[in-house]
Every structure is written in C-alpha cells, then in structure tokens.
Automatic annotation (TrEMBL):
Membrane topology: Multi-pass membrane protein
Protein's UniProt name: Phosphate transport system permease protein
Organism for this UniProt entry: Candidatus Aphodenecus pullistercoris
Compartment(s): Cell membrane
Domain ABC transmembrane type-1: 70-278
GO molecular function, one term: phosphate transmembrane transporter activity
UniProt gene name: pstC
Record field: transmembrane: 12-35, 74-96, 108-138, 144-166, 203-225, 259-281
Length: 288
C-alpha cells in the first residue's frame, strides 16, 4: 500500500514539475519579449508603431508602421478559417459517421501524412502551382498575393481541424444516436443535432488549433505572399507579422532589430487575445 502511494506521489511530483516548466517557459518568453520590444515602441511611439501605414526599416529616414502587417495577418487568418474550418468540419463528420471503415482508415492515413509535411513544402508547391494558377485564372501580373497565402493556410490547417474533430466525434457514445433515431430523427438530423453538439467542445478546440497554426505560420506564407509591406489587398503582394520578423531578423541591428522584437511582442499579445476570446466564447456556449 505504501509502495503504491509512493509511486502516485512520484508521478504527481513529475507532473507538477512538468507543469511548472511549461508555465515558466511561457513566463520567460513573455518577459523576454516585453524587455526586448518595449524600447522600440517607446522610441517610435505606440500610435505611430501600431497605426503607421509605411514600413521602411532600411531607408535613410526609416519608418516603422506595422498596420499593414496587422491587417494582413487578420485578413489572412480569417480567410483561412472561413475556407478551412467548414471543409475540415464536414470532412470529419463524413469520416466519423458516414464513410465506410476502409475509406475512413485510408483518409486518416492521408491526413496524417498531410499533417507531417513541412511548411516549406507547402510553400514550394504553392509557389510553383498556386501562384502561376492565380496569375492565369484572374489575369493579374503577379500571383504571389494575399489570396495565395489564404489558400495555402486553409490547406495547412485542415489536418488539425479534421483529426481533432474526428477524434471527438468518434468518442460520442453510440447510445445518444440510438436514442435520437428511436425518437424518429433521421441519421443526418442525428449527426448534426445530437452528435455534433455532444462533441462541440472538441470541435471548438480543433478550430483554436487551426487558428494558431494559421496565424503563426511564416515560411509557407513568405514563399507565396510576395513579402512586400503593402496594405492588404486580395491580389497584391503582402507581408504578415510573422514574415516581417523572419525576413529581416538575420541582418537587422539597432532600432530595426528592436522594432522586430516589438512586432513579435504584438504578435504574441495578438495570439493571447484571440485565445482568451475563444475561451470566453467556449465557456459561454457550455453554460447555455
């Protein structure tokens, strides 16, 4: 009995240490970003930094306005979610409840492969196929644009949305569906009015993971979006918050380097704000 209790205490201690490490890592990152990013914001000015429309960090008279990056990140993430989440959700419902077992197993294997593909490969395929395709279909001079980034991000979030949603839909007890069918509901009505609401917490988690993947992606977006600091337009080259940091950090120095840390700080708080908002929405939906 004492041995069993000792084992449980050891396991609890290990989990406690791992939890403290995770929380401590977040705190260290937060403190480091704040210390590194605030000097540039103080020197440039918060309003000029957040709402300035021109970024020219290497000009003779440099300007550090990141509003184009903020709006581009918002539009790009929103577009990817609008396209990717419905496709991923309905695909998960089909695979969990309607598809034959062999089809479901094969598609799960394919989705797993899709999840394991490096982001640079997505960017390469987008650069070689998607960008020329946009040029040909929409008759624009350059296909590297916000639209290309949205499509690539929508494809990249599909594995997260499908896998997590599928797992939670399959975990819903069969008795719920049998009771609904016994009351006269059709199979489709049962899936969307009983199974999906029962798994909504997991589906919501899948959406949060998709948003995190979309807003945090850099390499693939850099390869298909053109990486030019323009105000966002669907068929124009743009730069995201993530790509702004990745593209200039290697050769930056002085105020420019501090401004890049400030962009990382803005991105960090932006992600935290989105996650907090989604958690509030999730809690309210659970209490209704």
């Amino acid at each position: 009995m004492n041995i069993k209790k000792t084992k449980e205490d050891v396991i609890h201690f290990i989990f406690l240490i791992l939890g403290l490490i995770a929380v401590g890592s977040v705190l260290v990152i937060t403190v480091y970003l704040v210390i590194s990013g605030l000097p540039a914001i103080r020197e440039i000015g918060l309003v000029d930094f957040l709402f300035g429309t021109r970024w020219a960090s290497t000009a003779a008279e440099p300007e550090y306005g990141i509003l184009p990056f903020i709006l581009t990140s918002i539009y790009g993430t929103a577009g990817a979610i609008i396209i990717g989440v419905p496709i991923g959700f309905f695909a998960a419902v089909y695979l969990a409840k309607m598809a034959p077992k062999k089809v479901c197993a094969f598609m799960q294997l394919c989705i797993g492969v899709l999840a394991g593909i490096p982001s640079v490969v997505y960017g390469l395929v987008g650069m070689l196929i998607l960008v020329p395709g946009i040029m040909a279909i929409f008759d624009v001079p350059d296909g590297a644009s916000l639209l290309a980034a949205i499509i690539v991000l929508a494809v990249m979030i599909l594995p997260s949305v499908i896998n997590v949603s599928l797992t939670n839909l399959q975990a819903v007890p069969r008795e719920y569906e049998e009771a609904s069918l016994a009351l006269g509901a059709t199979t489709t009505e049962t899936y969307f009015r009983v199974t999906v609401p029962a798994a909504k917490s997991g589906i919501f988690t899948a959406i949060v993971l998709g948003i995190g993947r979309a807003i945090g992606e850099a390499m693939a977006v850099m390869m298909v979006a053109g990486n030019v600091a323009n105000m966002p337009s669907l068929f124009q080259s743009v730069r995201f918050l993530t790509t702004a940091v990745a593209s200039e950090m290697s050769y930056s120095s002085g105020l420019q380097r501090q401004a890049l840390f400030s962009i990382a700080l803005v991105l960090f708080f932006f992600i935290m704000l989105i996650n907090a908002t989604l958690l509030v929405i999730k809690k309210r939906s659970q209490t209704v």
